[in-house]
Design goal:
alpha/beta, 13 strands, two-stranded parallel ribbon, Rossmann fold
């Protein structure tokens, strides 16, 4: 029997890949996308217009739905908007899902709800939430809405791949500002490719297994800082002219650029997250086999 799956954020980075993964899945599904405006996807997919900042537009969106894959979020410094979308919007969506009798809710959150590292082989059960930005605070509040309803929360750290506007572009901006690479900086960072994350979201949504709770959803082997910078260097049009810098030398050079200093401080220490459930066996059996 075909299951009806609702996806929020279908025109966004993660949600767009989740919608694609559902269409490519061998499982019989009917996909319903919640969009703020038309014109993003083809006519073969059911779409409904709604806006998380206006809970009244969400009424009825979950009717007849079996699974909700909530991938929509607002990332930015506007605390009013991040609260409206991530916190209050999620609350309204969850209330609609519960009212409609939806069997499973999966929310794509972020490891940023843990705050700032270092984190080394950190399990979700071991880490208190300590979000440090308006976006992370609002997403932590959204998590609570989902978890209280018996849903599943997924916390990736770095999400890489087609459509990424944050990780690799941010690292490339760091390299351009430094005009050099880094040396003696080999911290470990959890990551996941967006296409792989999308398949994991679909697997969590459609599986017969019970996954309820919060999970770190990253590949089991972290990337080193040098690997991430090498990957981001593809976005830098010319070879870096300067000799590699130590982290302390880089901090001096970036002393008047707080956003890039934040990127540098993140790179300098471990952000390595693990999970009892989302392990290598999970990726092999439930994601790569799809």
């Amino acid at each position: 029997m075909s299951r009806r799956v609702l996806v929020t954020g279908g025109s966004g980075f993660v949600g767009g890949h989740v919608a694609t993964a559902l269409r490519e899945s061998s499982a019989p599904v009917h996909v319903r996308l919640v969009l703020r405006e038309t014109g993003h996807l083809g006519l073969e997919t059911e779409t409904v217009l709604a806006d998380l900042t206006d809970p009244s537009t969400l009424r009825g969106v979950c009717d007849g739905v079996d699974v909700v894959l909530h991938c929509a979020s607002h990332v930015g410094s506007d605390e009013r908007l991040t609260t409206a979308v991530n916190d209050h919007g999620t609350q309204a969506l969850v209330e609609e899902a519960v009212r409609a009798g939806v069997g499973r809710i999966v929310y794509v959150s972020t490891a940023a709800v843990y705050g700032r590292g270092p984190f080394t082989r950190a399990l979700p059960s071991e880490l208190p939430l300590a979000p440090a930005s308006p976006t992370s605070r609002a997403r932590a509040a959204a998590e609570r809405q989902v978890l209280d309803a018996g849903g599943i929360v997924l916390r990736p750290h770095l999400v890489l791949g087609p459509g990424d506007r944050w990780v690799e572009p941010g690292l490339a901006a760091l390299l351009r500002a430094l005009s050099a690479g880094l040396k003696d900086c080999e911290a470990r960072h959890s990551y996941v490719e967006v296409t792989t994350l999308a398949r994991a979201v679909v697997a969590m949504g459609l599986s017969d297994k019970t996954w309820a709770g919060a999970h770190n959803v990253n590949r089991t082997c972290p990337a080193r800082t040098s690997e991430l910078l090498q990957r981001a260097s593809r976005l830098v049009p010319h070879p870096l002219p300067g000799a590699p810098l130590t982290v302390e030398e880089a901090r001096v050079r970036l002393r008047d650029q707080p956003r890039l200093l934040h990127h540098l401080d993140m790179l300098a220490v471990d952000h390595w997250f693990v999970d009892e459930v989302v392990d290598e066996d999970f990726w092999t059996r439930h994601v790569e086999s799809r």
